[in-house]
Design brief:
single chain, 169 residues, alpha/beta, Maf protein, 5-stranded mixed β-sheet, globular, NTPase/PRRC1, manganese
Length: 169
């Protein structure tokens, strides 16, 4: 079965390849239709769904996956949030969310001021491309949960929903 993922980000691509055992996976840069820094669960979900739908529209894949990272501001502070969507040619949409971790106020304040998490994390860690490696979740969990692992969990839930639906329709 041909699959597509709406990203070139290694953490996202490897999550899909690992869970679906896909050697031949189409990776695509597609528009999320949301801001560069999604600021709610709703916006982050919308970005994941849009990425998955845009993959199907721009490829001949049978299934596509969109994975989107964002943040959610709560009365307890700002948390990272991550969502995924799997879309089929039958217009079925499956959605799953990932782990959350509280961001330090110094980072949250920069995001509230309009910056994007990836560059802020690069500055904070004095490193490059944190979003393509351990991600903020890896940094703030002391690498007990990396971005790739978190996305694998989301993709595993998407795969399970899809398989359940295929068996029970």
């Amino acid at each position: 079965m041909k699959m597509a993922v709406g990203s070139f980000n290694p953490a996202k691509v490897e999550a899909v390849r690992t869970i679906f055992n896909q050697d031949e996976l189409v990776t695509m840069k597609v528009d999320s239709g949301v801001s560069e820094q999604p600021f709610s669960d709703e916006e982050t979900i919308e970005g994941a769904v849009n990425r998955a739908k845009n993959c199907l529209n721009e490829s001949d894949a049978e299934l596509s996956i969109g994975l989107e990272g964002g943040v959610v501001d709560t009365k307890h502070g700002m948390f990272v949030c991550n969502w995924g969507a799997l879309v089929t040619r039958k217009n079925e949409v499956f959605i799953a969310g990932g782990a959350r971790v509280l961001l330090p106020d110094s980072i949250a304040n920069r995001l509230r001021a309009g910056e994007e998490l990836g560059p802020v994390m690069d500055d904070f860690t004095q490193s490059n491309n944190i979003r393509k490696k351990e991600g903020a979740i890896g940094i703030f969990t002391n690498n007990r949960v990396t971005r790739a692992e978190m996305f694998q969990h989301i993709v595993r839930m998407l795969a399970g929903q899809y398989e359940y639906n295929e068996r029970n329709v």
